[in-house]
Amino acid sequence: MQDEPKISQAVIDRLPRYLRYLGDLRDQGVERISSRDLSLLMHSTASQIRQDFNLFGGFGQQGYGYNVDHLYSEIGRILGLDKEHRLIIVGAGHLGQALANYANFEKRGFVFLGIFDRDPALSGKTVADMKVRPMEELVGFVTENDIDIAVLTIPKTAAVPVSEILVNAGIKAIWNFAHADLPVPPGIMVENVHLTDSLMHLSYSLASSAGKE
Amino acid sequence: MQDEPKISQAVIDRLPRYLRYLGDLRDQGVERISSRDLSLLMHSTASQIRQDFNLFGGFGQQGYGYNVDHLYSEIGRILGLDKEHRLIIVGAGHLGQALANYANFEKRGFVFLGIFDRDPALSGKTVADMKVRPMEELVGFVTENDIDIAVLTIPKTAAVPVSEILVNAGIKAIWNFAHADLPVPPGIMVENVHLTDSLMHLSYSLASSAGKE
């Protein structure tokens, strides 16, 4: 049984941004906001905001605006942020260390439980108050600690075999920073952050705008 | 004058992935590949590949497949990777340091020239063989060194004012890791990497798939 109505990918993609603005408003002590004021703030349209929020049963009262705190919690709940997600990082290089120190994990219900690396020189080193563990302990750790999410910050050549090991060990989702496509079985989620692709979008934009001058 | 035909955003978004696969093939010594073999490798369709490549004037000969090395260079050129882009990082925290050590910059024509932080404790510290500079030197440095791109790895509260300073100093593009929308004037590119939004996509997928069980 599904509790939520079917929501399009485009709406889901907008939810984190709504949450960000509502969180800011809440932190500023704003209690209510109209779709019009929110649309001005977000450079969006009031009708899109009303349409999106109607999908989840409204949250608002005509003429009174939306209750910021309630809307923030509801969108957070839809995004699954009210649930605990248990997470490890595989790859303790610079990026793995940066993510380990990423303060937003806990605020969003992500519990960071371990970090792994195959480099013996890193093994035992402390990152974000956590000892780096050797890869030999990976499968046992995932099983014993009921880990949901693995963050992959390893070179592309290692990414596919390591993702297979993780999936076999019971992981449900991969936050993939390795520059490779991961062929995972159905039901396993992969969220890719391909930094090199992102850089290329920038260089494309720069090159094509220079061409226009 | 523009040299390239108008290319849709969807095609541009696919180019970095083509480049990644073609680079791998080239590194493996593969000289030619058919659209069919490339489509099998990329889990795409041969007709989409032919359609995409036709937009840039083909690159291939019917029945002979595509010349991997030529195709790699051409796509790289379209993406602007044959040009030099001069880049600084603003924010020398964990993420800024990780990006400073990101080896792919140079391979893609991005020249990393400086890193800045407003924290006096970091000033003078060395990151990726480069001294962290104080923010007071930012504007002068951008102007004197003809910097095109600023990578923003600073807290969201500082992102908007710092982006305004950078734009006024002559920067053309921002690779934005700060969790804020940057209101830049027309002609300035912003490529956002919102890690928190990406994490929320994962938690949404996990929550909605758990609902289905």
Description:
Two copies of one chain form a homodimer. Chain A is of the alpha/beta class and 213 residues long. Chain A folds into two domains: 9-78, Arc Repressor Mutant, subunit A, CATH 1.10.10.10; 85-197, NAD(P)-binding Rossmann-like Domain (Rossmann fold, 3-Layer(aba) Sandwich), CATH 3.40.50. Chain A is 46% helix and 19% strand. The first copy, chain A, has a seven-stranded mixed sheet with strand order 6-7-5-4-8-9-10, with helices on both faces. In chain A, strands 1-3-2 form a three-stranded antiparallel sheet. In chain A, a hairpin with a 3-residue loop joins strand 2 and strand 3. In chain A, helix 1 (9-27) runs antiparallel to helix 4 and helix 2 packs across helix 3. The longest helix of chain A has 19 residues, at 9-27. The first copy, chain A, is globular. The N and C termini of chain A lie far apart (56 Å). The model of chain A has no long low-confidence stretch (mean pLDDT 89). Chains A and B meet through helix 1, helix 5 and helix 9 of A and helix 1, helix 5 and helix 9 of B.
Provide a quick synopsis of the model:
Two copies of one chain form a homodimer. Chain A has helices spanning 9-27, 35-42, 46-55, 68-78, 94-100, 104-107, 138-144, 156-169, 195-212, and strands at residues 32-33, 60-61, 65-67, 85-90, 110-117, 126-127, 130-134, 149-152, 173-176, 189-192.
